[in-house]
Write a structure and sequence with these properties.
Elements (H helix, E strand, L loop, with lengths): L24 H7 L17 E6 L6 E6 L35 H7 L5 H4 L9 E7 L1 E2 L8 E2 L1 H11 L5 E2 L2 H9 L8 E7 L3 H13 L5 E4 L1 H5 L8 H9 L3 E4 L12 H19 L5 E3 L7 H9 L4 E3 L6 E2 L10 E2 L7 H8 L2 E2 L2 E5 L12 E5 L7 E4 L4 E6 L3 E6 L6 E10 L5 E10 L1
This protein binds zinc ion.
The site of zinc ion has 6 residues, from loops.
């Protein structure tokens, strides 16, 4: 009430770093039609860091935005402040070690049907947090890598009690059906099927019975690069219950393609999955998190029942299940304070988001949304551009920028303090032609 909240002067940082990667450059150089706009060295993402400073009065947030596009070399290790633990000692969520483990799934063999056989933990929560990894212990790629020390800390945290790590298909099913999941439900995803997933992460996930999903671009495996898994390895994971997801054929910038080519990407990768695994995955991740309305329709038409972008935030029952959020983790944004903050985050539920399409047709974008419930302390942080925020009544939020944003990807994150010092979070990622 009148006393200063515990989080006064806390800074948080937001991520959204360069998540997709130079590891693709070998392939991309061959496959990509339109490279120039993403040829800033090896980096294809935008990162920024933001400070939120809360004044002691009235929970009013001031922006101390320090957003800067970052390259692999210049991602700033912004000082991460004390983590929001979310527990406050007030409630101790029941410890639910996952019942839907990889081991269980292994017994049912056909991993794609595993969720039907597994018991999905239920609960009252209507949201879950999904993390995204790429590489493990590959220090030469810090923007897509997590160190093994960081990874061990993440696993230690996830197995420390309050969390329920569930398979992503199970989370999707539960939330899409409007059912609850346990509070602090976590999903783990790994993009691109690098060899280090098999060699370094898989033994750890297996040891701790942590289910996870690997998103595979089929051509990257077909090309036989040594830094990617082989199909034998993917088969082994699949048989052990690891969820395999789709990630296009050529790890393509899908919004750049005409729609027939997008459909060919999906059809060709589906054919390869069928040949190699005997099934086509049902969960998809857009390469680079890039999508637009046509791409999304094609992914849906191809049979995928859910798809992830790369925008931050907690997924929830009202999410767009064909463009779900995930928190990216890498060396720069893999520290425990941020990990804890993300793992304990709650959705900032919004509707009527503009622009509605995930690829901008107008630049600067006229960004706006309607809050499901008032959030007076909310603030928003764009990856580029000086924002002016207007509040129309308690619910409608409109943000305008001082000028156009660069081509590539533009992100904006809106956060507000929620119950028990847990952040409510709504992130968007727009592809900028
Ligand atoms: Zn990828």
């Amino acid at each position: 009430m009148s006393c200063a909240p515990a989080w006064v002067d806390r800074k948080i940082l937001e991520t959204d770093m360069a998540v997709e990667t130079k590891g693709h450059s070998a392939i991309s150089a061959v496959m990509r039609v339109k490279p120039p706009r993403r040829m800033h060295g090896l980096i294809v993402g935008v990162s920024f860091a933001v400070g939120l400073t809360f004044g002691a009065t009235a929970g009013f947030a001031q922006i101390a935005s320090d957003s800067a596009p970052a390259t692999d070399e210049t991602v700033e290790a912004t000082t991460a402040e004390p983590a929001v633990t979310g527990s406050d000692g007030a409630e101790t969520p029941e410890v639910l070690t996952t019942e839907a483990t990889a081991q269980d799934a292994a017994q049912s063999d056909a991993s794609q049907n595993a969720d039907q056989e597994m018991v999905t933990p239920s609960g009252d929560a209507t949201s879950a947090v999904v993390f995204m990894y790429h590489r493990f212990g590959e220090g030469e790629y810090p923007s897509t890598n997590i160190t093994m020390e960081q990874f061990d800390q993440h696993v230690k945290e996830l197995t420390s009690g309050p969390y329920t790590v569930m398979g992503v298909p199970q989370i999707v099913s539960a939330l899409a059906d409007g059912k609850g999941v346990p509070d602090r439900t976590i999903g783990i995803t790994v993009d691109d099927a690098y060899r280090s997933v098999y060699e370094k992460a898989w033994p750890v996930f297996r040891e701790h019975n942590l289910p996870f999903t690997v998103f595979v671009s089929t051509e990257q495996l077909d090309s036989g690069y040594a830094n990617y898994m082989t199909w034998d390895m993917v088969r082994e994971l699949s048989k052990a219950g690891v969820t395999i997801g789709g990630h296009s054929q050529n790890h393509a910038h899908l919004p750049d393609f005409d729609i027939d080519r997008v459909k060919a990407e999906l059809a060709n990768s589906a054919a390869r999955f069928e040949e190699e695994l005997g099934y086509v995955p049902e969960i998809f991740a857009y390469p680079y998190g890039e999508a637009n309305g046509e791409v999304i329709a094609a992914v849906k038409e191809a049979g995928y029942r859910a798809a992830f972008g790369q925008q931050s935030g907690a997924m929830h029952t009202e999410s767009d299940f064909m463009y779900l959020p995930r928190y990216a983790l890498n060396e720069h944004y893999g520290a425990m304070d941020r990990f804890n903050l993300a793992a304990n985050s709650l959705p900032l539920v919004v509707s009527d988001v503009t622009p509605a399409d995930y690829t901008l047709t107008r630049n600067p974008p006229a960004f706006g949304f309607t809050l499901a419930e008032p959030a007076p302390s909310m603030n928003c942080y764009p990856s580029e551009g000086e924002p002016t925020m207007s509040r129309l009544g308690e619910e409608r939020v409109e943000i305008r920028l001082d000028g156009p944003v660069s081509s590539g990807r533009w992100r904006i994150n809106c956060t507000a303090m929620g119950p028990d010092s847990r952040w409510r979070w709504f992130g968007m990622l727009y592809t900028v032609p």
